[in-house]
Amino acid sequence: MGILDNLERGLERVVNGAFAKTFRSGLQPVEITAALRRELDTKAAVVSRDRVLVPNKFTVRLAPDDYERMVTMGATLTDELTRLVTKHAATQHYQFAGGIKISLRSDPTLAVGVVQVDSENVSGSVTWVAVLEIAGQRYPISKSRTVIGRGTEADITVDDSGISRKHVEVLWDGTRAQANDLGSTNGSKLNGQRLVSAALEADSVITIGQTSIVLRLLPQASASPSAPASAESVQTPRAAEPGGFWGPRE
Hints:
Layout: H1 3-12, H2 29-43, E1 45-48, E2 51-54, E3 57-62, H3 64-71, H4 75-92, E4 95-96, E5 100-106, E6 115-120, E7 126-134, E8 137-140, E9 145-149, E10 156-157, E11 168-172, E12 177-181, E13 188-190, E14 193-195, E15 197-200, E16 205-208, E17 211-221, E18 232-235
Parallel strand pairs: 2-4, 3-5, 9-10
Antiparallel strand pairs: 1-2, 3-6, 5-18, 7-8, 7-17, 9-11, 11-12, 12-15, 13-14, 13-16, 16-17
Helix pairs in contact: 1-2, 1-4, 2-4
């Protein structure tokens, strides 16, 4: 199975639900991903034996009609494009000079269905943003300990009769994450295996009751103060997947 097959599967969930009608015909998000992938491969520069540098700032130019359809997805689309670009770079052993920034721009000179990508290398600093995806909604982790459960005392309340009032917790120190079951009645699973206490990697799936919780780690770079407010995502890939850091809670 080729890399484009993987990218298509990755984007499939993004265009489901509310966006299904929007992308029933015309330009598809996967075509933007393919254009970004080609831009990486074309602009890859061998700096040394162990370093292949690729651009990290991308301006995706679209026909006005395509642009209007794409921006209806807001940050959801640009976040997913950034995640898939990061995966492709990791597969090809590419490296970035700084945070990845993807911007969508309307270009009236382009015909519908045409994608043009401009890119450059820009240095930048990196911070980490952890997000929990639950039932299609994203919850940024703003504390070192986030409790998920059915009760109102949980930090994230989930309406699922198979979940305890305080079911599971996610610990986060800014670079690494861990999940602990809080003695729940029905137990928890991590990637299909029983969870008691375990380190979390990016895209790990915690299952409690009938609910799936996905950890997304989005390394984010500081945007330029002069950058226009438009459909864009500013992120950078990590060098390695985060591991665990805390032992089981007492």
